[in-house]
Automatic annotation (TrEMBL), chain A:
It holds the Pfam family Peripla_BP_6. This is Amino acid/amide ABC transporter substrate-binding protein, HAAT family (TC 3.A.1.4.-). Residues 1-22 form the signal peptide. The keyword Lipid metabolism does not apply. It comes from the Bacteria.
Automatic annotation (TrEMBL), chain B:
This is Amino acid/amide ABC transporter membrane protein 2, HAAT family (TC 3.A.1.4.-). The lineage of its organism: Bacteria, Pseudomonadati, Pseudomonadota, Betaproteobacteria, Neisseriales. CDD domains: TM_PBP1_LivM_like. It is found in: Cell membrane. The chain crosses the membrane at residues 23-44, 51-84, 96-115, 122-143, 178-196, 229-254, 266-291, 298-317. Its main location: membrane. One of its GO terms (cellular component) is plasma membrane. GO terms for molecular function: branched-chain amino acid transmembrane transporter activity. The keyword Cell membrane applies. Keywords: Cell membrane, Membrane, Transmembrane, Transmembrane helix. Pfam families: BPD_transp_2 (PF02653). InterPro entries: ABC_transp_permease (IPR001851), LivM-like (IPR043428). It is a multi-pass membrane protein.
Length: 400, 333
């Protein structure tokens, strides 16, 4: 009898912590997970900079929300969807993580967003670019914050068409991402009356672009569009420089860190679209310098997006007094974002965060005032023109 | 006393000779695994089991057949895609999906094996690597795989159309996916048992003979190529079984599982645990996957740590963890 009672007490003691969590803030702490690439090709775009951005947002918020402390946990997903999803699942199941930010890699992004929908937790994608996140894989708990490949391709293609650059030749990385990027850009060029002179596909992680560049050169097109990213992009631009390619080269997905890797000499004059760069306006500069003081490098649009979206998330918790995903998500959709990153930015029903994008040009070495001064603003692209319209969305959540 | 001891020893010898199974370790292992989800995170435990089975399947070929394949990821990852497709698009029940994927891996193993077993040593490794890369690029390009985004959102479905595998049981405030866990446990033990039976069968003995001296086995009248091919196909099918189960557990199939890194990883697991021992690959898989898991917040230190451990293993205990222990205790595991 005695033993049985002891057992019962033990069982109750084990079960109770599970019951005690029902309150406005689960587990009495708001936990934010930063799941990013810490060691691979995108570590410079996100990596520890994203953790710093989240910590900055929490410090600026005051470290507490609704009287409860805010914590950050972080992990490296190694660019593997199964590791990323496994870590996220564990965070949700055992560590009470309330929101996951950054993600940075479409495979991981989609996997974690799906998991978030299953577990009713908010996931915010800043680093990943795939439009599938707000298209056929969209989720009521997923937000795609900083940019997507459509906005980048559209911003750059539209701006150049306006300048009379109306014939294009594409170099495309031969996988789904390159195909999406090239497809979006080609459609826009053709819709605006331009001509696509041709497309050549190159395998992922190519080292020798000479034959592709020669084909681009002999096509006679005014613009050579690079529908690739990271190392492929950097190699292609460097080799185009060595070949003395006279055509305008545009990157359809360029991060500030790529420009840094190329150097102004090789990259000068190149135009691309971005969501953030510290040189663009005084507000952005203020954030950039503050971040620089902590991190030792200037933030990318991914870092800026992590800061801005974390702030928006915490503000929604403050306003609702709970970290319940449904309530917070509703509040986040209702409230426009007004900060250094976005003016009147809104989250659409498909999860797309709509804000202005910027067309920028890489400075000539003579124009640069320092090693981090590399871009200048060419044009601001209003949010409603930058992103894929809701009417063209494949998302099942969009009522048409 | 003396006589009794002798009797006991001779009894043991007889036991070893007809290798009548001793079920005690099996029972203990089963008990530990059955209790595991209550102590460690169940999804992680399931992943461990899938990798353990994968390493055991690989070890069947390397440890007992002496064939170093450097392309086993194509069976593991290929089957993950096949089961994912069968479950998601065709809506098959989980057991049928996994069976289909395992059969698919076996067919792939037959095709690759037919080409590869004609060569030995480094050439064998290179041929398997090359053919596995073809599978990798097929997975990268085929529309059904989702390219670099992977095949996402694979449903768990209902086992035999009856048991909901996505169901969880609430114990101590935690939601434990016990149905799925015990399904995976059954698959892993089934696969392991099959490997154990194979190794201890006349077929396994012939395989070991071929490993030790192929020319002599040939001269004794064994059809060496057929034995090798059979071992290759079996190893591929079991690797596929592990991959298909993993896709069910994590709910996605991605390029990670088919890339050559994974082929390297399984070599590492097997060597670290102890090649040619039955238990070694399990220990190796648990070690490597746990390290990956525990160190994932340390970034690139994962690779450095695992690399150092591997160097240490090669320098100090070349038989692997289990192999070394077995050697010290003069027993086989």
């Amino acid at each position: 009898m005695q033993a049985r009672r002891k057992q019962l007490a033990l069982a109750l003691a084990l079960a109770l912590p599970g019951l005690a969590v029902a309150g406005p803030i689960s587990d009495d702490v708001v936990k934010i997970g930063i799941l990013t690439d810490m060691s691979g090709v995108y570590a410079g775009v996100g990596g520890k900079g994203s953790v710093i951005a989240a910590e900055m947002a929490i410090a600026d918020f005051g470290g507490k929300v609704a009287g409860k402390p805010i914590q950050v946990v972080s992990a490296d997903h190694q660019n593997k969807a199964d590791i990323g999803a496994g870590k996220a699942r564990e965070w949700f199941d055992t560590q009470g993580v309330d929101m996951i930010n950054d993600l940075l890699n479409s495979g991981v992004g989609i996997a974690v967003q799906k998991l978030g929908a299953e577990k009713k937790r908010i996931t915010i994608n800043n680093g990943a670019g795939s439009t599938a996140l707000t298209g056929k894989e969209c989720s009521p708990y997923g937000i795609h914050y900083a940019y997507d490949t459509y906005a980048l391709a559209k911003g750059t293609a539209t701006a150049l068409m306006k300048q009379g650059m109306d014939s294009w030749y594409f170099l495309q990385a031969d996988y789904a991402f390159g195909q999406a990027l090239q497809g979006d850009a080609a459609k826009i060029v053709q819709a605006l009356g331009g001509k696509v002179a041709g497309t050549v596909k190159h395998p992922l992680s190519s080292t020798d672009f000479s034959s592709y560049l020669l084909q681009a050169q002999s096509s006679g097109a005014k613009v050579v569009g690079l529908a690739n990213a990271g190392g492929d992009f950097v190699n292609a631009v460097k080799q185009a420089k060595e070949f003395g390619l006279k055509q305008t080269i545009v990157g359809l997905l360029v991060f500030d860190s790529d420009v840094k890797a190329l150097g102004l000499n090789a990259a000068q004059g190149m135009k691309f679209t971005t969501a953030y760069s510290w040189e663009l306006n005084p507000e952005m500069e203020a954030f950039g310098k503050k971040f620089f003081a902590k991190a030792g490098f200037m933030p990318t649009m991914d870092h800026a997006g992590v800061y801005s979206s974390t702030m928006h998330y915490l503000n929604a918790i403050k306003a609702t007094g709970t970290d319940d995903a449904d309530a917070v998500m509703k509040k986040m959709r209702e409230t426009p974002v007004n900060d250094f990153f976005a003016k009147k930015g809104v989250i659409r029903e498909d999860g797309r965060f709509v804000h202005d994008m910027y067309l920028v040009e890489v400075l000539k070495p003579s124009e640069s005032k320092g090693q981090w001064d590399q871009l200048k603003l060419v044009a601001t692209i209003p949010g409603e023109q930058a992103f894929k319209p809701l009417s063209a969305s494949e998302c099942a959540l969009v009522k048409k | 006393m003396q006589a009794h001891d002798l009797n006991q020893t001779s009894l043991n010898v007889v036991r070893m000779a007809d290798s009548r199974p001793n079920y005690l370790p099996w029972g203990m292992a089963l008990a530990v695994c059955a209790a595991a989800p209550f102590f460690i995170y169940p999804v992680f435990a399931m992943e461990l089991m899938c990798f353990a089975l994968f390493a055991c399947a690989f070890n069947l070929l390397l440890g007992f057949g002496g064939l170093l394949s450097f392309g086993h990821a194509c069976f593991f990852g290929g089957a993950a895609y096949l089961s994912g497709h069968a479950l998601k698009v065709w809506g098959l029940t989980p057991e049928l999906g996994i069976l289909f994927a395992t059969a698919g891996a076996a067919v792939l193993g037959l095709l690759i094996g037919l080409v590869a077993i004609r060569r030995q040593g480094i050439y064998f490794a290179m041929v398997t690597l090359a053919l596995a890369q073809i599978v990798f690029f097929a997975c990268l390009q085929l529309p059904m795989t989702g390219g670099e985004d992977g095949l996402q959102g694979i449903p768990k479905g209902r086992l035999l159309g009856l048991i909901d595998l996505s169901a969880t049981v609430s114990i101590g405030g935690q939601q434990l996916p016990l149905a799925l866990y015990f399904f995976v446990l059954a698959i892993t033990f089934g696969g392991y048992w099959l490997i154990w039976r194979t190794v201890n069968s006349p077929f396994g003995v012939a395989l070991k003979a071929i490993r030790e001296n192929e020319a002599r086995a040939l001269s004794l009248g064994y059809r060496v190529d057929r034995y090798k091919l059979a071992a290759f196909v079996m190893s591929a099918a079991l690797a596929g079984l592990a991959g298909a189960t993993k896709a069910l557990v994590v709910g996605l199939a991605s390029l990670t599982d088919v890339s050559w890194h994974m082929s390297g990883e399984v070599v590492l697991m097997t060597l670290l645990g102890g090649m040619g021992t039955l238990l070694g690959p399990v220990v190796g898989a648990v070690t490597v996957v746990s390290l990956h898991h525990e160190l994932s917040s340390l970034g690139s230190w994962v690779t450095v740590t695992i690399g150092s451990i591997f160097v240490l293993c090669v320098l100090a205990f070349r038989r692997g963890i289990v192999g070394e222990i077995a050697h010290r205790l003069k027993k086989t595991f």
